[in-house]
Write a structure and sequence with these properties.
Two copies of one chain form a homodimer. The first copy, chain A, is α/β, with parallel strands linked by helices and 243 residues long. Chain A is built from ten helices and ten strands. In chain A, the strands form three sheets. In chain A, strands 1-8-2-7 form a four-stranded parallel beta sheet, with helices on both faces. A four-stranded mixed beta sheet of chain A has the order 3-6-4-5. A two-stranded antiparallel sheet of chain A has the order 9-10. In chain A, helix 5 packs across helix 6 and helix 6 crosses helix 7. The interface between A and B is medium-sized, with 29 and 29 residues.
């Protein structure tokens, strides 16, 4: 039985993604603080679709060409030349419903484009905001799975690995998992699950500190709550739409 | 006070080493299963010194030039053309005392040469076999520290991260640690410390399975025991010697 199951791997950093065969896999882009939380939230609140772009320049250019919201951050703050940032709390239904969002972020949208370049068979995005939607989708997959953490400028981070671990914990029976990184993620998640905010705070998580310095405590708390925006964003023809 | 402490980072894979500034750091090469366990053991048992080389061909060539033991593995087994493998249990006092060991391994010696190429200020090697020697050395450092895991062909592994975590747990008061990877390692270690063999077995660690398939259970148990070969190997002028 075991070898008929598809495989599941966790890539802890974009700099490790090349180790896994994306061409045969559904790649789950994970950027908990905050890109993939924002993506789920905007779509949940009725955005028509999201165009993830890998540079601020492209974001600005698209903003000139089509009627859309241009948004993004670099180093955790609204990028120069853009009107909106990467806080999921900005994307209320009142603000985003029926609109197109063009988004660029330091790590998450960059990783999505790396996965594209590697010929990923399918790309979805995940974060605690849509934990159940993502795990339900995965357990019905026949593709192999790569849980791809966006990390922070290629450095492994706690929050993305926690979410990878939450997924492993929910879907592990359905996959063959010969991947130490996935087991490490699961162990970390089980340790933290009862109080994730407390866990990342007590572990002095680097991106937690960065965002706290900018006054984003509410964002962090939102991004660690399960299923607040429980839709499945899937990437097709340059756009993230609800599956 | 806090900012006067040197920094400590954990690189979970050779593919992440470039993210850290080796030129300002003491780099601890970590390859628990089994290179750095073997290095500690051979030196503890009286080897004159060890020449780590990054290819089987160089190992064979040195074997022709000097009176030495040539040893190494590829993919967990003795490499073709070499006389000895990478099992620490081979390097008894009777066998290795007074001799020079030339060693090449899939991950550990390769990583040591990467650290050299990156201009590491100082290189030492660590594993559970010399946990106390390494941690005592580190707490007296003024250099920054990089705990560099050898991993398995760049894929993060459990056992190297466990040892990094054991070091973090012992030395953390002496360093400024803004590094999620170090906190993840520490969490993993604290979870596993009471029964490391059981932990890596139950987590289906990939390299555990590889070595078990080759009949190396004794090696694994040896490599997870603290302080069985408690010397500090330091790299100078092409050689690993006891500090």
């Amino acid at each position: 039985m075991a070898d008929t199951k598809p495989s599941l791997h966790t890539s802890m950093s974009p700099a490790l993604l090349h180790l896994y065969d994306a061409a045969q896999a559904t790649v789950v882009i994970i950027d908990v603080l905050r890109a993939t939380s924002t993506i789920a939230t905007a779509l949940y609140n009725g955005a028509r679709y999201i165009i993830p772009v890998d540079s601020v320049a492209k974001c600005i250019e698209l903003g000139r060409q089509i009627n859309c919201i241009t948004a993004g951050e670099r180093d955790g703050r609204i990028a120069e030349g853009l009107l909106h940032g990467n806080s999921p709390l900005e994307y209320t239904r009142e603000f985003i419903e029926g609109k197109i969002l063009v988004l660029t972020t330091t790590n998450g949208t960059r990783l999505l484009h790396m996965a594209l370049d590697k010929g990923a068979r399918e790309i979805i995005t995940g974060s605690f905001a849509n934990l159940t939607a993502v795990s339900n989708y995965l357990i019905n997959q026949t593709n192999n799975i790569i849980l791809a953490c966006a990390a922070w400028k290629d450095r492994v981070n706690i929050e993305d690995l926690l979410f990878a671990g939450a997924l492993v914990e929910r879907v592990k029976e359905h996959f063959s998992i010969s991947c130490d990184a996935s087991h490490i993620a699961q162990t970390l998640y089980k340790k933290a699950a009862h109080d994730m905010y407390g866990f990342i705070k007590s572990n002095n998580a680097s991106h937690y500190n960065r965002l706290m310095n900018y006054g984003f405590e509410k964002d962090i708390r939102y991004c660690l709550e399960p299923d607040l925006a429980n839709v499945l964003p899937i990437y097709e023809n340059g756009k993230l739409c609800v599956y």
